[in-house]
Amino acid sequence: MSSDLLLIQEENGVMTLTLNRPEVMNSFNFDLLRALWEAIKALRFRSDIRVVVITGAGEKAFSAGADLKERVGLSEVQVKEFITTIRDLFSEVENLNKPVIAAVNGIALGGGTELALAGDIRMASENATMGLTETRLAIIPGGGGTQRLPRLIGRSKAKELIFTGRRVDAREALELGLVNRVCPQAELLAECQKMAAMICETGPLAVAQAKYAINKGMETDLNTGLAIESNAYWLTIPSQDRLEGLAAFREKRKPVYKGK
Known about the structure:
Elements: E1 6-11, E2 14-19, H1 30-43, E3 51-56, E4 61-63, H2 68-72, H3 76-94, E5 100-104, E6 107-109, H4 111-118, E7 121-125, E8 129-131, H5 145-153, H6 155-164, E9 168-169, H7 170-176, E10 181-183, H8 188-200, H9 204-217, H10 222-236, H11 240-251
Parallel strand pairs: 2-3, 3-5, 4-6, 5-7, 6-8, 7-10
Antiparallel strand pairs: 1-2, 8-9
């Protein structure tokens, strides 16, 4: 497996993962999925990395989804393996114990949109196009799209987009709540870095627990969600970071959090 398929850059507590198959619009083959899987798994134990940004190489595409040229040569069993791999990978992205920002820098179709949905924050360039287009190939979204899209934009609108396979531009994606922000393509990564820098100023343990509480709480009723929030809060009380935050406030300085 070539490491060139996934470019990895680290700076100031932020890791940027770049899908690097621009010649095929950064579409997913088995090797790229496995490279991304290994990178995400390793990140869970990297306390020095506070935020992850995922984007695509080039100016045309974030990811056009599955590599259909590879797909043509796969057996039914291999297709099932591919779908299981991509679904489990995107769940790993969603459940990573640190924020993930999807920098959607162009076309994001099928699995490309599903990867963005698995992120915590989606920022798109003005030329971005998104959509779950699988029904036009007589299949359905298999990387979590039928579950994450309605949770994000509502059941009815998600059904419309999935049933028709329609693509939406950046403006409509913003109106739907599919993305958090739209900016010129040349400024996209810089804006993601600004967002990441703001997150890096906060307490690492607090952000991890907040993400856990939001993700798990949204899957249950309010009372259970409040219990999840309480348990997540309790974990932050004995932390050194909480005491550092109080001391910094009292001393009118910026806190220095260590994730302890």
